């Protein structure tokens, strides 16, 4: 048996490498491929932290000549790889400053005795202005400045910071407030000296040509590099002219002389296709911001595979289409690029794209034998564009992934992937699932167009899963990219074991119903046996949405019955491996970084934050709250520092502007910014050891997300804070808030006043109060770690599948077995659920049954008077009216229902629905209300109105135990569990009464049943406490069509029989025989009574 894990990206991907020192590689055109310098230590880069989407990062490079496999160190959470910047296509600010240099300058006034050394020689990219910008003061003694990236063999000599070697920049202090656009402008205009270094080996990645508009950015970079090389007097640079980095011989002064947008003639064979004017393609694509000088030449591709909601603006092709001329140009480009990739060496490397928490948890579970006797098969895309890779190379890559890594690639063209992932997933699904409904004018055409590709991509995944599936395998599908796959697989494999887990939030029905394809997505998910969510709230939203839009019935708030199947809906929060993280905290590098941080910010309160750079993370609101905190508590301007680390590329110019304005305002509160800087804003991630050290030394950690599935960064912080037990400020809109609400300080990021007060509370909380709060948090982290998530999810998938399998194995009623059980028993009870009026034949058979001493009950939704009239000709018949609300014993009615005072409130809701749907009406009975729509004039609106009514009633009255459900297009509203309570009462009564037909003895007391409310003159409380009967019921039969009312009775009979309470139990269903607790089946009510008549005659 295998566990088939399907997610958008495989845990491995191919990597092509280019040796730029070879002459034949010196003319590679960057308009054909992406070329990225490969650092020597790149193979050590770890997978992304659990709460940050790995889709925003680039793939690591392997150790040269060694195809890496995921080892123990490479698969455990989250330390296996170092984080990498999401923007690698051009020399942007994020690329100019390594995390080591940043930390060096943040800790520039610390002693060098504790400076960690790197295990491998690195050649970091350095920038003098940036280092000066991050340094504490220009007066730092030179003997206290050292690089944290010294080679272990050169520990005796320190690498001096470039700050010492450069002339004093009068704008250095002004640049202390991080303003990325200002810094880039400074770099490009020669206000600082720039020096970048890099190795000869480079990673080459295909470019996606799916609907891209022609751009001169790539060719202009080639021209600039060529001119720069010529001006420096270098006759033959070792780096090819297309490499997107500045050579060691190139300075900013030379860069200033280069034309920024010089046009490069096309060297393509079909040059007339390459010369398509930008005016033609501009009608198909929105132009990028001309002021954004950091835009990558292949910005479209970066967004395709690496960014996680980095773009806020929608670059929607007109009418959702793509330019035919762009496609023609694409094929012309492919001709040259395929020749390149046909000869480049490649290897398989671990990928850091995709869901890191999921991959780490599964790999750890396999290594620790938590998933015994099975191996994992991965299904996903390879993480890079494939159109430009020759078919024979793709075939070799696929074979290598399958044979060596159990990874089965889903190969799709770039147009399909781009439209499905970037367009539909990122610009339609992602915002909607996070309560950010897209409102672009072209969104309707855009959504309809990209939906076809989303469906196509999902179908390819389903086909790949079906192809490798073997009987007994478990299929586990992950996240919103693949929401259609469960039903697609179910159509081909009806008996497969399928689970689905959503790792992001699921909105309320009011938000989800804004999706044009809402029903198709929900139906796709209901193909799974189990659907898992991160929180109870998200699971409830899914149940309510399915109830409203699909009119699926919700059972016990944990099951969804739809299309003849039962889907288990649970919340199973993903977690981290706390013990593994604790061992990493003991690493010498982490301990040394902690010492440097303590010396750098001695006497200050450190507030640490780490978020992805987008609006949904609430960074702007966090800074506003911090600003208010400092204004109201000015003593903390010099005593506290907020370090905000941002991940991902900044494509939202307006958000960046808003944030930097607040950062500038906050830092202006300091009287001497060279000594005290209230906010340090870093739009670049740190190495993991540095991140752990910073989290360990934090006095407060703040998460202010406006909506988020499960924020695992705060889980990592809790483990890191074992020494300081620092408080956690956590937004109530994150999934983690429901898990950590006992120990964290829960905040509403929209409430600036209380948010600022919470910051003060956290900073001033004494240790004796912090310690117990931290213990609660740590306990929750351990109890809900990655191991628990794996075990719980797989167990729920199996249990749900097992129930559906049992429901699909209903056998036809065996008349001989039923007769033998009937004849061998002494005390028999029958319960028939009959919705229609009885025929004369049924009346006759019922009389025969009761005359032979059988206990016979008829149950339906009719009121008591109607039920009595229908069966008045049957002697000694028992009646159960209004689906279990009232039970008739020996002609006396007893109440089972607890409350009926809710009816008027529900009637007001239904009055509104009747007005909206002419022809509909509702009836109020003693314990229930029915809403009829069979005579509605507009039948097209029936489903919508019924869904609204059910959702409204269940939301308002759920806490009172009142539930609305639909059966055969009639909505019934009633107290939950009445039919089961009535049946349990009958079992207790007939197993206790010495003579069930004689109630005059006065000895019937003390049977525990629901209390009576508002009884009529003929109604009594259920009889209680009889003498113990010598003859218990030993034969029980419940029969009827499957419905929410009867299913609990089927289960009760099965449980009574399995526990030995009855010798023979028969749960017989007629009509629909799928997904039911019934074990036996007959074609209809007439067939059932024919069989009954035979057994009672013999």
TrEMBL record:
This protein's UniProt keywords: Cytoplasm, Phosphoprotein
InterPro entries cross-referenced by the UniProt entry: Glyco_trans_20, HAD-like_sf, Trehalose_PPase
Keyword set includes Phosphoprotein: yes
Domain of life: Eukaryota
GO-annotated molecular function: alpha,alpha-trehalose-phosphate synthase (UDP-forming) activity; enzyme regulator activity; trehalose-phosphatase activity
Family annotation (SUPFAM superfamilies): HAD-like (SSF56784), UDP-Glycosyltransferase/glycogen phosphorylase (SSF53756)
Cell location: Cytoplasm
CDD domains: GT20_TPS
Record bears the keyword Chloroplast: no
Polar residues bias: start-end ranges: 72-86, 213-227
A GO BP annotation: trehalose biosynthetic process
One CC-aspect GO term: alpha,alpha-trehalose-phosphate synthase complex (UDP-forming)
Annotated Low complexity bias: 228-242
Region annotation (Disordered) ranges: 59-86, 192-244, 274-297, 1000-1027
A Pfam family it matches: Trehalose_PPase
Stored PANTHER family: TREHALOSE SYNTHASE COMPLEX REGULATORY SUBUNIT TPS3-RELATED (PTHR10788:SF15), TREHALOSE-6-PHOSPHATE SYNTHASE (PTHR10788)
Protein name as catalogued: Tsl1p
């Amino acid at each position: 048996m295998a566990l088939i894990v399907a997610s958008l990206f495989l845990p491995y991907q191919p990597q092509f490498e280019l040796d730029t020192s070879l002459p034949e590689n010196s003319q590679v055109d960057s308009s054909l491929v992406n070329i990225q310098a490969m650092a020597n230590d790149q193979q050590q880069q770890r997978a992304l932290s659990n709460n940050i989407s790995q889709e925003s990062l680039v793939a690591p490079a392997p150790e040269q000549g060694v195809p890496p496999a995921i080892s123990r160190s490479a698969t455990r959470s989250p330390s296996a790889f170092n984080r990498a910047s999401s923007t690698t296509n051009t020399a942007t600010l994020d690329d100019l400053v390594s995390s080591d240099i940043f930390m060096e300058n943040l800790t520039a006034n610390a002693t060098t005795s504790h400076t960690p050394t790197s295990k491998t020689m690195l050649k970091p990219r350095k920038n003098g202005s940036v280092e000066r910008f991050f340094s504490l003061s220009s007066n730092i003694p030179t003997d206290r400045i050292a690089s944290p990236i010294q080679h272990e063999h050169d520990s005796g000599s320190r690498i001096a910071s470039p700050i010492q070697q450069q002339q004093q920049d009068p704008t250095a202090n002004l640049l202390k407030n991080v303003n990325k656009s200002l810094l880039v402008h400074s770099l490009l205009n020669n206000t600082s000296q720039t020096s970048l270094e890099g190795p000869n080996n480079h990673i080459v990645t295909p470019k996606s040509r799916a609907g891209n508009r022609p751009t001169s950015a790539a060719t202009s970079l080639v021209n600039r590099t060529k001119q720069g090389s010529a001006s420096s007097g270098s006759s033959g640079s070792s780096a090819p002219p297309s490499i997107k980095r500045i050579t060691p011989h190139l300075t900013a002064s030379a860069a200033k002389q280069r034309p920024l947008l010089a046009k490069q003639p096309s060297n393509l064979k079909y040059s007339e296709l390459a010369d398509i004017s930008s005016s033609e393609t501009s009608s198909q694509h929105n132009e990028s911001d001309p002021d954004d000088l950091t835009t990558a030449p292949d910005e479209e591709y970066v967004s395709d595979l690496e960014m996680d909601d980095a773009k806020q603006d929608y670059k929607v092709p007109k009418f959702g289409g793509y330019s035919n001329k762009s496609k023609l140009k694409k094929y012309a480009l492919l001709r040259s690029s395929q020749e390149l990739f046909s000869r480049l060496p490649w290897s398989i490397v671990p990928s850091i794209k995709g869901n890191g928490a999921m991959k780490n948890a599964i790999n750890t579970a396999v290594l620790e034998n938590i998933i015994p006797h099975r191996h994992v098969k991965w299904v996903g895309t390879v993480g890079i564009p494939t159109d430009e890779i020759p078919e024979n190379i793709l075939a070799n890559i696929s074979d290598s992934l399958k044979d060596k890594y159990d990874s089965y690639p889903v190969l799709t063209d770039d147009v399909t992937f781009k439209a499905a992932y970037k367009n539909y997933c990122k610009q339609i699904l992602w915002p909607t699932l996070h309560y950010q409904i897209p409102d672009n004018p072209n969104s309707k055409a855009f959504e309809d167009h990209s939906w076809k590709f989303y469906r196509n991509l999902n179908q390819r995944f389903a086909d790949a899963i079906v192809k490798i599936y073997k009987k007994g395998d478990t299929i586990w599908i992950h996240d919103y990219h693949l929401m259609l796959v469960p039903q697609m697989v179910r159509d081909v494999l009806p008996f497969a074991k399928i689970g689905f887990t959503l790792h992001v939030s699921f909105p309320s029905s009011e938000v989800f119903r804004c999706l044009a394809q809402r029903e198709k997505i929900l139906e796709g998910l209901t193909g799974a046996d189990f659907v898992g969510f991160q929180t109870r709230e998200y699971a409830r939203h899914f149940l309510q949405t399915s109830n409203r839009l699909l009119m699926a019935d919700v059972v016990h708030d944990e099951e969804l019955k739809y299309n003849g199947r039962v889907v288990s809906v649970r919340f199973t929060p993903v977690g981290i491996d706390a013990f593994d993280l604790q061992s990493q905290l003991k690493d010498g590098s982490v301990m040394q970084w902690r010492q440097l941080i303590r010396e750098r910010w001695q006497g200050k309160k450190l507030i640490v934050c780490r978020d992805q750079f987008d609006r949904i993370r609430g960074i702007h609101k966090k800074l506003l709250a911090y600003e208010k905190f400092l204004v109201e508590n000015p003593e903390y301007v010099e005593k506290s520092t907020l370090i905000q680390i941002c991940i991902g590329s900044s494509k939202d110019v307006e958000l960046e502007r808003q944030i930097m304005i607040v950062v500038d305002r906050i830092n202006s509160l300091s009287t001497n910014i060279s000594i005290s800087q209230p906010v340090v804003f870093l739009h670049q991630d740190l190495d993991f050891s540095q991140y752990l050290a910073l989290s360990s030394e934090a006095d407060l950690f703040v998460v202010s997300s406006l909506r988020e599935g499960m924020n695992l960064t705060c889980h990592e912080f809790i483990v890191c804070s074992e020494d300081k037990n620092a408080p956690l400020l956590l937004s109530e809109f994150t999934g983690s808030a429901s898990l950590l609400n006992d120990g964290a300080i829960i905040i509403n990021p929209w409430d600036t006043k209380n948010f600022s007060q919470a910051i003060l509370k956290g900073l001033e909380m004494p240790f004796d109060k912090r310690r117990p709060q931290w213990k609660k948090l740590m306990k929750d982290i351990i109890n809900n770690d990655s191991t628990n998530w794996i075990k719980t999810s797989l167990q729920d998938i199996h249990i749900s599948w097992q129930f559906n399998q049992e429901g699909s194995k209903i056998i036809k009623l065996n008349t001989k077995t039923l007769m033998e059980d009937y004849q061998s028993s002494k005390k028999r009870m029958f319960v028939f659920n009959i919705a229609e009026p009885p025929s004369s034949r049924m009346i006759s058979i019922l009389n025969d049954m009761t005359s032979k001493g059988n206990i016979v009950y008829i149950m339906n939704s009719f009121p008591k008077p109607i039920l009595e009239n229908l069966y008045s000709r049957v002697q000694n018949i028992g009646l159960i009216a209004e689906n279990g609300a009232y039970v008739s014993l020996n002609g006396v009615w007893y109440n089972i229902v607890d409350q009926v005072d809710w009816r008027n409130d529900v009637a007001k809701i239904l009055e509104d629905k009747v007005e909206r749907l002419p022809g509909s009406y509702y009836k109020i009975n003693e314990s229930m209300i029915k809403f009829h729509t069979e005579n509605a004039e507009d039948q097209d609106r029936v489903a919508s109105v019924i869904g609204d009514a059910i959702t409204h009633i269940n939301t308002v009255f759920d806490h009172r135990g009142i539930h609305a459900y639909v059966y055969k297009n009639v909505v019934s509203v009633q107290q939950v569990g009445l039919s089961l309570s009535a049946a349990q009462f009958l079992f207790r009564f007939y197993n206790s009464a010495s003579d069930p037909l004689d109630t005059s003895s006065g000895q019937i007391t003390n049977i525990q049943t629901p209390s009576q409310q508002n009884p009529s003159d003929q109604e009594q409380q259920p009889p209680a406490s009889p003498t113990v009967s010598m003859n218990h019921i030993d034969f029980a039969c419940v029969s009827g069509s499957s419905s929410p009312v009867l299913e609990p009775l089927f289960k009760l009979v099965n449980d009574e029989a399995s526990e030995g309470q009855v010798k023979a139990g028969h749960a017989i269903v007629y009509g629909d025989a799928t997904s039911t607790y019934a074990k036996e089946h007959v074609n209809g009510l007439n067939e059932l009574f024919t069989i009954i008549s035979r057994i009672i005659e013999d």
